[in-house]
Design a protein that fits this description.
This protein is α+β, with helices and mostly antiparallel strands. Helices cover about 25% and strands about 20% of the residues.
Length: about 140
């Protein structure tokens, strides 16, 4: 089981590190892995908008860089200070659908409200490795 309050605390703690000078839409993410470590990420924008990176992908890529894999991940939290709860964009949903187990908790929060979901709910009928096989 993941530590609900701690994963959110770590995500909100790094929200200030978000680099969003163009959209001013700050997002942070935190992954809790099996050994109790927390891995964070923030969105990092670029003047060439397509080269920006979302917080969810920053965190998951960092976890994989450190050698963790989907079975090591207990949960991911994605936070903003937006008025309504923000869900991952389509690109992040696609990446997370491959790099997380389908039922890994995805905790979304704006500091006032929370929603706990998973990748099965966020991206049903996802495209994955099994779709690349011929037959």
């Amino acid at each position: 089981m993941y530590h609900h309050e701690m994963i959110l605390k770590h995500a909100f703690d790094v929200l200030k590190n978000s680099y969003a000078p163009y959209s001013e839409f700050h997002v942070a993410a935190c992954i809790e892995v099996e050994n109790g470590e927390y891995i964070t990420g923030v969105n990092v924008e670029n003047a060439s908008y397509g080269l920006s990176n979302c917080a969810e992908r920053s965190a998951i890529f960092s976890a994989y860089t450190q050698g963790y894999r989907k079975n090591d991940i207990k949960a991911i939290a994605v936070v903003t200070r937006a008025e309504k709860i923000t869900t991952p964009c389509g690109a992040c949903r696609q990446v997370l659908s491959e790099l997380l187990c389908p039922d890994t908790p995805v905790i979304l929060s704006n500091g006032k409200k929370e929603l706990v979901t998973n990748m099965k709910e966020l991206l049903p009928f996802s495209f994955g490795q099994e779709d690349l096989t011929e037959g």
